[in-house]
Amino acid sequence: MFKYSFQGKVAVITGAAVGIGYEIASQLSLAGASVILNDIDKSLADQAANNISATGGQCIAVEGDAGEVQTVEKMIALAYEHFGRLDFAIANAGITTFGSFLNYKEEDFQKILKVNLKGSFFLAQKAAQKMIETGQKGRILLMSSVTGFTFHPDLTAYGMSKAALAFLAKNSGVELATHQITVNAIAPGATNTNRTADLEQGNYVETWEKITPNGRCATTEDIAHTALFLLSDEAQHITGQTLIVDGGWTSTSPPP
After folding, report:
1. Main-chain dihedrals φ then ψ at residue 156, nearest 5 degrees
2. Domains of the chain
């Protein structure tokens, strides 16, 4: 891994107690950033923050629903209260609910909108407002998905929400460019996490290795390395973009 330096930088990241979010938070901390991470599960959030702090980093846990604006505002306020600045806002929190288009339930649709869209939109908005207010150049990172770009069985609503995040990055990236704030998104393909390990009858990795052109299922490190690049000074001229990280799967898109 290329060794970035984020010494003195401050990041907030939602949904970061486990999986991709945790790996991004951990890698940022190892590169010198102070991190405020969120999860709806207090015990998981506290454990994640303790693990990161144990490696020498500064990490604060915030319990709360990332789809609620007050949770987002609390995280940003803590960044300034404890560290005096905010450089990176990473809207990682998201939920996946499966269901056919014809039978998808309204309550599931509302949950998807709340966490995946509302939470991401207002984290980006509130972070940008504070960055502009304080004259701080910054980076905003959204978490889209390959399902926002191509068909996947039983994920119409989820894919719709992830496609919307790619547009959010494109539109807000232009609007915030004059403030030297970049907005980009990552669209991970199949990624081996604690959550996905329970899918595909326990054969998730093997299933996706067979249908991914490079023969790999992504790791959380693959996605975190992409995130650190987009947050780095080396990516300062990249904004409004969505980077697909999927080993080539969307080029062929065979369903599992």
Report:
1. -60, -50
2. 10-249 (3.40.50.720)
